Amino acid sequence: MVSTKCLVLRGSVLFTLGVFFSLVLNLLQVQRQVTIFPPEVLASLFSSAWWVAPSCGTAAAVIGLLYPCLDKYLGEDICTKGEWSSVMRCVAVFVGINHASAKIDFANNIQLSVSLAAMSIGLWWLFDRSRSGFGLGVGIAVLATFVTQLLVYNDVYRYTEPDFLFVRSWLPCVFFSGGVTMGNIGRQLAAYDADADRKKAKVD
After folding, report:
1. How many domains does the chain have?
2. How far apart are CA 34 and CA 12, in angstroms?
3. Where does the chain cross the membrane (predicted)?
4. Integer Cα distance of 107 and 77 in angstroms
């Protein structure tokens, strides 16, 4: 049984990572003018709206805690998901996908979207390959894209050259890969807690 202390600590780590990634990746998007915030809502570091970082941090914590729970429900062994080196490679690929969405120039958005979709599926295949990972990734992509469309529709911010209901068509790919990445981090943290509990039980 996972203690409340472990869950809070794990959630705090995930929240911090989510905030960090959101600041760095959103800075990249804003610099390339992929996303544009109205001047009146810019109120924090890295030229981002103040609510972006805590929202992404909260989402990262929820996703990272949810993945191990779903693994357990489906009978998948979270202790065999990989090591920290694999998690770090997954993070690097995720950052690369975001970098590609902002900096690589394609002939049109369809080519970019197809390329990012292939990269996102490749990320899942290389570092996850689980039913829970794919299912949650798709669910996160759909839900996050819908929320983003609502925000853009209400003029909270906007995308340059939108081609899919107020947003960019490649956005679900970024959300999918982000969900898989945070899920793998959450799994590794859960595996670390499980190992610590087993060692403690042996000592007792």
Report:
1. 1
2. 30
3. 7-28, 48-70, 106-127, 134-153, 165-185
4. 43
